[in-house]
Specification:
The protein is mainly β. It has one helix and six strands. Strand 1 and strand 2 form a beta hairpin.
Length: 115
């Protein structure tokens, strides 16, 4: 039983191979699924993206924010689940965007990269 719980925490990883605007091609080291969420490391920031196509060991992912500064070779971690939202008390009194970022915490017109 312990072996399964260890494996459940192991995520597929990969590296950025190509970038065209907000479409990123990732070479993966394991299985990924369409609509799975992944996080792409850009310096100290994590960019959230969703797998929109899988072809062999390549995953085509759509990044939800600017890819400016992203370079081939950047590490990617696949989360093993689709986009989720958290529900709970107080949710109806807040303003969120489509990724459940709290819009009341914005300091300007746009959220900071990775928030």
């Amino acid at each position: 039983m312990k072996e399964k719980s260890k494996e459940a925490n192991v995520h597929t990883t990969g590296k950025v191979f190509g970038i065209v605007a907000n479409l990123v091609i990732v070479h993966t080291d394991g299985p990924v699924s369409q609509n799975e969420i992944c996080m792409i490391r850009l310096g100290d920031t994590l960019l959230m993206a969703e797998v929109i196509k899988v072809s062999g060991k390549q995953a085509f992912v759509q990044v939800f924010e600017s890819t400016r500064g992203l370079k081939p070779g950047a590490p990617v971690e696949f989360m093993g689940h689709m986009l989720e939202v958290t529900l709970g008390p107080g949710l109806l009194s807040k303003n969120f965007d489509g990724l459940q970022n709290d819009l009341d915490k914005m300091t300007g017109i746009f959220l900071k990269k990775g928030e």
